[in-house]
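TICKET #2291
ISSUE: user wants both folds in one file
ATTACHMENT 1:
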Amino acid sequence: RDFSALSDKGQLHTQLKTARHECDESRKTASDLQKKVRQLEAVRSELEAQSQQRGKHQGSIEQDLNKTRLDKKLLEEQVSTLQGEFSQLQAVISDLEASKRDLQEERRTLHGQLADHATVTLSLSETRGEVTRYEKQVSKLEGEARKQQEEFHRAADIAMQDKKQAVSDVERRVRAEMASVQDRMGAMMRIVSAIQRELGEVKAARRNIQKEVSGLQQAVGPGIKTMRKQITSAITEIDTTNKELVRKYKKEMMLRKKYHNEIVELKGNIRVFGRVRPTIKEDGTGVQAEHVVTYDDDDDGLLSVVHRGSTKTFELDKVFQPGSTQEQVFNEVKALLISCVDGFNVCIFAYGQTGSGKTFTMEGYGANPGINPRALQELFTATEERNKDWDYAITVSVMEIYNESIRDLLSDSPKEAKEVKQSRNAADGHYVPGLTWIRVQTVEDVHEVFALGKDNRATAVTDMNEHSSRSHALLCIIVVGTNRTTGIRTVGRLNLVDLAGSERISKSGSEGQRLKEAQNINKSLSSLGDVIHSLKLKSSHIPYRNSKLTYLLQDSLGGDSKTLMMVQVSPVEKNSSETLCSLNFAMRVRSVELGQASRRTETSDSSSARDRMAEHGVSKNTSRVCCHWPRNSYNVYSAQPARAGLHERWPAGSDSRPAP
């Protein structure tokens, strides 16, 4: 029984521990309730923040209210759960009290047993001490349980009060916000109704205006249609008149050009064509690369240059804009070139500053040839069209004037200097003794001649031009035609000249040998300007001998020749000064009158006499060709073996010049 009592005490101790644990859980539950209260306060502050946001829809507020109500229900459920737990604790305490009563009953039983059994008095006294100790512990635990129960009740009451207060505050604020939203909605509804009334009034006014406009259109419509027809008719008439005026203007321009060309033909004026090159990389960028050259849309002979704020206009025979092609340029000079086949002397020379496109215009390149290769091709075509009645021979020479020295670019020694001499026969003009002439009959022959001349020509790199010509290049072509029926012989000469470009040393950056070349180029071009000036003034003395260039071109500038100058200019501000100088020189050249060119022919008798006289100098065992005959003197030279693709070649020698 003692051991049974001790076991019951252990169970009681265990139940007390359980009660303490449940009290701890109750405290935790109370702290959770406090957290919930803080969460409710956070929700309340969030609701207050949300209530400050105006213009939100009423549905969101109702949702927040429903959420708050849901939280309230959850709190009520948690409170009921705590109440259930509290009732369970009360049941445990009642069980503990019942156990206490049982223990007291057992104690009384033990007292009775102790009276009967004195032997166990000591043991019972010890047991009594332990029971007393346990009773104290039980009473202490009961006190603690009552205190915890009281604290729990107070915490639960505080939580319930805070919950009720929070819910009431939220409900009050929600009701206030709902009332505010309803007030705003009422105000908005009143504004909308006012707007609708005003909109109705505006619609009514619009209908009235539409009626008035419709009435006005009906009243003014016929007049507007009439005015429209009249205006359309007037515009059509003006357009027709303008088109007619433009047509007449263009017709007059063509007639003017035709008559001008006829006058030029009669007076022998030097014709001047202008060509403006496109922009190139040497022009740079920025203000210096801006275009300063403009053109006339109706007259292709006018161009203007803006320089230092002023505009100067120049009138030429033809102006080619930067977009012009090599074919367009050649089509304009083709008629002049063909006159060489008829026995006229023709000269075309390109003039302009360095880098202005002279070599491109005259020579071009493989896929885009210039005037020189196209001219020979056209001469072949023209002679083939007349081969039924005429026999033609075309011979070519290429030379350059480098540092005031004439070089034969087709000879085996192209750097050997040549001289210009006056023929004994004034009609034969000037010639270069020892100059190599090559007879060409196919396009392949022409290509070989050009390639040989190009390889031997002097070029160099400057700041103005990557492939700057350092010499004046002359392509001389002689076309000899013989009529099979009459025996009449025509001799035409074509000089195609690519002048070296004038340059400013400060811009080109020339030094050393390049500087010497530039000085000689500028000197010869200055002499050309002096000759043009004297020709314009019709002076008794023309300074042809001041340079090799003017002395060699004397027959083309002041003799019996059709001459055309192709002035090349740059379009950009950087070169505006040089452009003005080139165009001013072109205007002076255009005013020079050379006199009407004449056709050079020989009768069959004179040509036969020349042939018989030439035969006296021809050996029976060798093939000989007459190259030139000054008056009272005939020089005959043996023909050397031709180059590959070439048919005949006249070697160097005194008075070496092809002739019939």
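ATTACHMENT 2:
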Amino acid sequence: MADNGQVAVAGDAAAVPAGDPANPEQQQQQQPSIIRTILTQLFIMYLINSFFRSGKNASTGPDGGVGRNLFPLNQSMEMAVYLNEQANFTEFKCESCLLWKVEEMVFGSYTHGPTEDGKYKFSTEIEASEAILNNGSLYLHVFITKTGNSPDPSSNSYNHLSTANASKLLTKYKPQRVKKTANLLTGDAEQSIPKDDEPRKIISYWHPNITINALADHTHWQKGSIPPPMDQFIHFDNATGDYHPVVYVNEYWNMAKDYMPINETTPKLQLNLDFTPISIFYWQMYLSQSAKPQWMQWMGEQQSTDEEQDSFKETLLETNPYLLGMTVVISLLHTVFEFLAFKNDVQFWRSRKSLEGLSVRTVFMGVVQSVIVVLYVIDNDTNTMVIISCVVGLLIEMWKLPKVLNISVDRENRVFGVLPRITFGYKDTYVESPTKKYDDLAFRYLSWVAFPLLFGYGVYSLLYHEHKGWYSFVLGICYGFLLTFGFIMMTPQLFINYKLKTVAHLPWRMMTYKALNTFIDDIFAFVIKMPMMYRIGCLRDDVIFFIFLYQRYIYRVDHTRVNEFGVSGEDLDAADAAATAAVTAEGRAAIADAPAADNADPESQQEDSVVEVDEDEDEGAVADLKDESAGSIAAPRDGSVLRQRQIADMVEAE
């Protein structure tokens, strides 16, 4: 039979963690891509399973020309597991090759076995041969036969219609794990650092856990109509047209970080085998993961890193399914809120006329932080979508600079006589208000705390962490400082709010969307396994936002302060009063002119047509006059004085 187990894992390889688990800054940059990984994998699983279902419907039909499973349900069977260093196993008479043999099994049963759940377990230690220690291969061969039959083709009890098998390469080959980081003071590194032109050595890796699955399914399949990759595992007998039961050697739940290199330090290799039946639904789930690289390439997506794969698996293993489903739904909201936060941030600064109450220095610090984040994610080879998001944030922060500064180009006094000199100055609305004084004072207090913390954090990172170079070291400590002590950068605006006793100048809509995103990050921080630093960062943002909300509560509406459009409550009240006075004066003038119309020639009054005026039209005219805050109102053409007085009463009421 074909080696179906080996075909299934042709694209698999031992995972090699690239990050430094001791360095929280390197772990942090991976977190934004975890959400994207979960959504991408679920979407691909949905596409592949939809394809499976369509293939299944196409392959199921009348009995004629349709193959059945050669092992009926509850068929008694036996299992034999062999180990050797060859891909094709023929040494059935080698007793040392027989690793595990189980009798009195029942095909498709979930109630038999030592624990009455259909599961069987076996553990042993393998003596690694000299060949295996030197990058040799080791294969696992699984044979399932009906009771009384032998898997050995040379035996008299052999029947190919009563046999199913699968093989699996247990040793995985990957480039040697290396880290391009070292202690910048001592030059020491936990692992060797290869030269740039030196190729990485390919070595073998080992994982102790293997699961053997027997597909408990009796779907009628038609040869040639089975969708890939299922067609690689379902093999038909040419004589009968029926197919052999599927034996699937499963290693999906083996974490990449748990693979260990095979060398002279590992003379014995631990091996834990589990046997359990599997339904077609779960089998399709595993196949969808094995086919994921091809689907991602077809969709133009980048391959997931080993860390992202491990995070996805840990999330599935450790998270409640209902909570995981809720997390997937709100992650979509995260993208929407992020877009709305960008949109309202731009809208706020575009319509802003006064800088009173706003910390201009915080805008400068926002640009510096965005630059650090962009350089850091590029230096750590982060996902392209994450980089694009960070660059968009940087562009928005830089776009704010002309809104808070007067930027002019001096072409007469050139730098070195070549380049135009660019000068910067604060806006008058910022300098002439108490805001600048409080902003300077807040940053003075901030520097007393921030610079010692930054210096201490830099010394600690230099002594105890490894870095790729001095450039990466500077970016790493700046990024780590922003994550750990970033809340300090938010305190100047809180200080200004405290001094001015108002929060009317803040972009509350944008802040609300960002706060909602922070709450979503909180959910991910505690649902998905993440570094403690990331969780502290989420908690920090929550605390700052609740302080803003508390300030909004204690600093009631002050009609003397201007809002984000540069207009105060007193200005609005004055405009309303002026509009009301103008409308009232014009209404009274119309009433005064009314007697002249009453004393006119009765015959001419009879010739004039009487125009009825609704109350709705009168109210609309009053509203138009209020909006214009000026102008005149024509005298009503209605000849009735009583009607004119009613209009005047409405004007006075307004």
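RESOLUTION: both attachments delivered.
EXTRA DETAIL ON ATTACHMENT 2: The mean pLDDT is 75.
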